Amino acid sequence: MPMDTFTLRGYETDAHGRLSVPALMNILQESANRNAAEHGFGMADLTQFSQSALGWMLMRFRLRMYHYPVYGQTIQVMTYPTFVEKYFIYRDFRVLAEDGTLLADATSTWLVFSMEKRTMVPLPDFIRNLTLPSHPDPLPRLPLKPDFQTAPFSPILEKTVEVGWLSIDQNQHVNNVAYVQWLVECVEDETLKTRELAEIDLVYRTESHWHDRLRVQLAIDTSAEAPSDTRLHRIEHSGSGKEILLARTRWRTSD
Amino acid sequence: MPMDTFTLRGYETDAHGRLSVPALMNILQESANRNAAEHGFGMADLTQFSQSALGWMLMRFRLRMYHYPVYGQTIQVMTYPTFVEKYFIYRDFRVLAEDGTLLADATSTWLVFSMEKRTMVPLPDFIRNLTLPSHPDPLPRLPLKPDFQTAPFSPILEKTVEVGWLSIDQNQHVNNVAYVQWLVECVEDETLKTRELAEIDLVYRTESHWHDRLRVQLAIDTSAEAPSDTRLHRIEHSGSGKEILLARTRWRTSD
């Protein structure tokens, strides 16, 4: 099975000295880029087979952290597409320590969007007709609209962010990991200091651009079994109130 | 000569698709960590040879960019200490393309600080007495107090930043690359869109911490030969006005 190897760098760790979740998401998506290119449907391939410029967009992402690696540790990332439908392609990730311990896993849903119209389009035929590698146990497809998307949301913390130049990627919109950084920066101090992320589940709803003003909100998930361990997050355009991202996170006491 | 190899990842590039300067600084400092550890004066060694906890702190850094590499390109980083004095150790960096083209170089000045007292201390004897590897052409030591540190400074742009959790490193203070990100985000749009950084020269004056409010300022360098190509930057504590970072940047029209 194809595997990418990453030795963790100092700046990929946080104040606790452990791999930070945004750094891991960057690594996973880099691995996804490489894997898609190997299968012939990387960013460059999309444009080549189409009249108009197309891009990949992340719609759903759920990451579960089992053990946090530290500075200097080498991790192995396996990623592979699991299902393909008319509009969506699904991709799993497994992160292993060198001794084979499962450190994290993730599953994700991607769509193709038209760079010009800025809307989703059906997957091009050459992708829909892909013969996917078979994998013993794909993670179940994430629901397109998870329950927390419509759960009651009473903000207990709110911040405003202006989208900066360095948060914009080559698609000329905000890189999807930037939202996760903003979401983490809008969590209570006590949680950041004494807990670690056990799980993050993300729904990307629309894009945002350079200089946009965004409102980042935090709420307790009162519908959860253990509300004290669970948070809801919302990022919206500050003016229109249009939803950009919804998320649920689960936190556990760190070692 | 020892050499680290890095294949550029998607998220290390900016909206132009080229390696971003903060991403390169992260890579260079990672390479410096590894090199210091190989020479026996890495972060871990500092503490081992001392009664009190010590840390490395960057005081001066100047980077010159000759050619910007792009996504997927492999770069080679060479770094080595060049001079050692009572309080300071100097380190150079060279960044090469695979065909040997010089892409960037940098030189830097580091000191050791006491984690407890948060002040600089003389370099421990085992570092002062190091036999440094000899290199054909070390870059000249940067002046401790460069001329732009006392140049007239009339802000044309100003932003306020609150230090977030993800900007804090294991020393419990702001990571030095975070300041460079804030400095870039406080540059006029036209410069970011149409130009590229040719040179950045940094003076780190004091540290800052989680939740500190910082004022980031931009000025034209009227003392420069070509003021339109040169900018001055200043980051200070918002309340006390205490200087944290001063910088000069030079920008050129990008290809």
Describe this structure in words.
The structure is a homodimer of 255-residue chains. The first copy, chain A, is α+β, with helices and mostly antiparallel strands and 255 residues long. Chain A folds into two domains: 4-128, Hotdog Thioesterase (Thiol Ester Dehydrase, Chain A, Roll), CATH 3.10.129; 147-253, Hotdog Thioesterase (Thiol Ester Dehydrase, Chain A). The first copy, chain A, has five helices and eleven strands; from the N terminus they run E-H-H-E-E-E-E-E-H-E-H-H-E-E-E-E. Chain A has helices at residues 21-38, 43-48, 125-128, 176-185, 189-194; strands at residues 4-7, 54-65, 74-84, 89-97, 102-114, 120-121, 157-162, 195-204, 213-220, 230-237, 243-253. In chain A, strands 1, 2, 3, 4, 5, 6, 7, 8, 9, 10 and 11 form an eleven-stranded antiparallel β-sheet that branches. In chain A, a hairpin with a 4-residue loop joins strand 4 and strand 5. The interface between A and B is medium-sized, with 32 and 32 residues.
In short:
Chain A is an alpha+beta fold and about 260 residues long.
Key terms for this structure?
homodimer; 255 residues; alpha+beta; Thiol Ester Dehydrase, Chain A; 2 domains; 11-stranded antiparallel beta sheet; 5 helices; 17% helix
What are the SSEs and their pairings?
The structure is a homodimer of 255-residue chains.
Chain A lengths: L3 E4 L13 H18 L4 H6 L5 E12 L8 E11 L4 E9 L4 E13 L5 E2 L3 H4 L28 E6 L13 H10 L3 H6 E10 L8 E8 L9 E8 L5 E11 L2
Antiparallel strand pairs in A: 1-3, 2-5, 2-8, 3-4, 4-5, 5-6, 7-9, 8-11, 9-10, 10-11
Helix pairs in contact in A: 1-4
